[in-house]
Amino acid sequence: MTIRGAVATQAGRLVHWGLRTALHRSASQLPGRVALAIDPQLIGHLRAKAVKGSVVVCGTNGKTTTTNVLAASLEAAGYDVLCNREGANMVAGVASALLPGEVADWAVMEVDELSTVHILPQLRPAYLLLLNLFRDQLDRSGEIDHVQDTIVEALAASPQTTLVVCGDDPLSVAVARRAQAAGTRVIAFGIGEDLGLPPDRVPEARFCQECGAELTYAYRTYAQLGDFRCPSCDFARPALDAVARSVEVSQTGVSFNVESAAAHTSWPVHAGFGGVYMVYNLLAASALAWLMGVSPEVFQKALDAYHPNNGRLQHFDVDGREVVLNLAKNPTGFNQNLGMLLADERKKALFVVVNDNPNDGRDISWIWDVDFERLAGVDAPLRVMAGGLRANDVQVRLKYAGIHATLAGSVEEAYAQVADLAKDVPLYVLTNYSALWPAKEELERMGESHE
Amino acid sequence: MSSTLTLRIAHLYPELLNLYGDSGNILVLRKRMEWRGISCEVQEVHLDDHPSFADVDIAFIGGGSDREQRIVCDRLLSVRNELAAFVEDGGVLGAVCGGYQLLGHSYLMGDEEVRGLSLVDLYTDRGSPRLIGNIAVQSRISAQPVVGYENHGGRTHLGSGVEPMGRVLHGHGNDGVSGEEGCLYKNVVGTYVHGPLLPKNPGVADYLIARAMERRYATSELEPLDDAMELAANKAMFDRLMADEGKEL
Fold first, then answer.
1. Candidates B97, B152, B170, B172; catalytic one
2. In the CATH hierarchy, which top-level class contains the domain A314-450?
């Protein structure tokens, strides 16, 4: 490492120590920011710390969970891992996560899609995992074409990186085909059977990005994901290197077999949480872990012990009532959550919280692309509340979906509004990004997190 | 009001022009008609259709990405004359973001000038930076300020006879300098305001419905609705933006 890199590292660590030990604050961003100010090439200088290499996880939905599961499985296999577990996924967050310790085996980094172009050329990871691409934060990210261009550019600047891509997602596959044409090695994963799930609204990717014809599907799994092909050119789901089969998605979680034709092997994976989107996350994590030398048994053991307590699908007991907290920050994420809610056959209450802080996206017009109408049927929640900085907008959206919602200023207030309902009626709290941690803190104060 | 009243909406290319929750605009029009006993038929116009506007009361064009907007414009040009006849006859046309740009003589895609529909005397060129953020507009078609979100690189310039939809109270509007936002021409409303446009601006929704009722049934009287939630959402955003204006001064 250069002297400048060494000074930057020490400065970053000093800030880390000050924040964590002296001030008891989160140190997920500032140490990296300070160190990068001294040495802008810091990530390139720190990359050698991960002696076996690094993995970058990107994609609109599922980054944090997939990153954490993968890191946990590597640790369970005895490796030392550097990881930005809290999801600080831009340059400063990645630099912060690379600072601690002298040496590690692997670095596993969640990276914001638009930040890949800054991070890949320096980190030069062994693998880039691209989970999916959905419409999200249009005011910040711009149109999805721009996000795709950025990832292609990032891969071009890191030629030794293998792209592990969701072969079921036309938008991710479009990236993979361009990267492959430029020399990137590509591995594809996907679901190899029709799950017979009700289709949800598909705001994106109805048309072939290469020729403009409308894509056709043998089956869809969710949103625009499935076994797709273009009727007029050769754009289609690629041959899958890792396939999920015998997929079960239920109220109690997901299970499936991972099959790898090339490696002549298969193994089971199961988890006590998530919907079909989690099958993809865990399929990707499991396949990558296998490539990185983690046995399927160890991966499953790590998954069994995985309790991230990061507000994603977290269950709380508040005075005998179950409260389920989850992140829902874009139409696809929300629609998956509503599917999960409807699959719960109990009567329930729902609190929808939408903020419009910069890290959420200031433009919340996407709430009109969420199928709240699905909630208005016979299984309608007993009570629905709207909260967050844009509570009024959510209330209007729900009104036009045929759902009367009241306003609630906090989880505590929402909880109070359902006090008269029987205790076996769970309260679902769905929040977007910046509303998640405050909601989690409230719930930790009000009750107990349980598995 | 008799339940035999029917209004027909043509939603143009919803699978392509749907960038900013535009389906919400159609939903709001439909609900506000149905709540008043006016039945509403929505006809989605797709790429391979050859739409007729003879029975249409309200046509709606949303916004899409550049690539998608280009595909749509090529198709729309083939029905340009019919659409122009619809507009000249007083047909109601709502156009948002990219759809608004399509109304004019031309707009820029990259550095290429793309021919528009020439339904309204306006054209769009480009400036830097993109004009992004919450917006509030004072308009004669709505009792409340029109509030929403804008996100456009285009700068739209109105011909001398074209009235803007309103004056910018907060945000950028057509070109960021004139203080004007959107356009009004006959029964056409074009605007950069999305969010989407109609849910928080029930006045604009009812303006479109009333114009269509007048043309089809010679009555523009609309039964009042309970808009407490819509107006609260409108006011919450307007108050926030005005507080920001105060800070900037």
1. B97
2. alpha beta
